[in-house]
Amino acid sequence: MKTFILLIAALFTGTITFAQNKITPAAPGVTYGKTITAEKAINVAALSTALNTDSVYNGRVSGKVVEVCTKKGCFIKIARENGTPVMIRFTDYAYFMPQNIVGKNVVVEGKATVNETSVAKLQHYAADAGKSKEEIAKINQPKKDIEIMADGVLVVD
Fold first, then answer.
1. Whole-prediction pTM value?
2. Pick the CATH number of 2-155 from 2.40.50, 2.60.40, 3.10.350, 2.40.300
């Protein structure tokens, strides 16, 4: 039984590594998920303003990627003026981001909402982002912030 479990674990790890290797590197014009354009994209500051009056924003948002999930590219974060980045996950985990997307300007299309993220999820995201055990241990309060569920991502530059 132990051999079977180890075999499954090895296959799963290999699949994640192989999947990350199959992701197209980030370059201007490359899209992930739904094919989108930069037309009518608002910046993150305008998104924050829009979410002050409405609970949901559907559309395109532009920003600079400051973090990517180091495990398999299952999320990215884009910069905000206040230093707290916006979390972007992908609808149904249908696609993933390459590791070289950090520092790139992107447009994401999807549904933005203000959500409260639990301590457990924040710690999970920190672990996926490669944070140290000490940094993860400092996370002890839930966080209310903007989150985008993206249908597509376009690398602008």
1. 0.76
2. 2.40.50
